[in-house]
Amino acid sequence: MFASLKTIDSAFQQVKTLALLFIVAVLVLAGTIAYFAFQTTNAAANRIYVLEGGQLLTAGARDARANRPVEARSHVTRFHELFFTLDPDQKAIDSNVNKALYLADNSAKRQYENFKEKGFYNDLIAANISLEMTVDSVVVTNSRPMVARCYGHQRVIRATSVTTRNFLSECSLRDVTRSENNPHGFLMENWRVLKNEDLNTLPR
Fold this sequence. Notes:
Blueprint: H1 2-45, E1 47-52, E2 55-60, H2 68-84, H3 90-101, H4 106-117, H5 120-127, E3 130-140, E4 146-157, E5 161-175, E6 186-203
Antiparallel strand pairs: 1-2, 3-4, 4-5, 5-6
């Protein structure tokens, strides 16, 4: 009788062990399936399907944050080209400056008002002077907020001469909502010109 009880107890232990092993195996299998399903869903989410000429094409999607430094450099470049590339035409000046002011905070507006008070724009028009800004490079930090330094040179084109200036400015960048006037979704803050000095003047 005791022998049969031991056999039953041993069989019960074996069944219990097998049941536990089965449960663990099922949980591992379920976890593996869930993991691969999650990976597949993520991969599918990063694919964009485009219909072109009746054919289905696949395009890859990227994390938008990966392109932010590139967009930041483009934003800063665009501002400086608009703000400092000017022709002796009041409407052209107003158009360029107004587009530039959408990309920066009041620090840029203060500089614009400064130029106006000093008669800078009137002098350009009266003397038929054109300004051309060329941005050589924009260095952006990965810190938050981003800090951007803009290196470039400016040409002052007069009737008899062309003056080249060395230019350096700095600002911080804040994320804002993208719009038609601000497609990169950045706002330049605390913008200041650190250097704007003459390099040379050549006769035309």
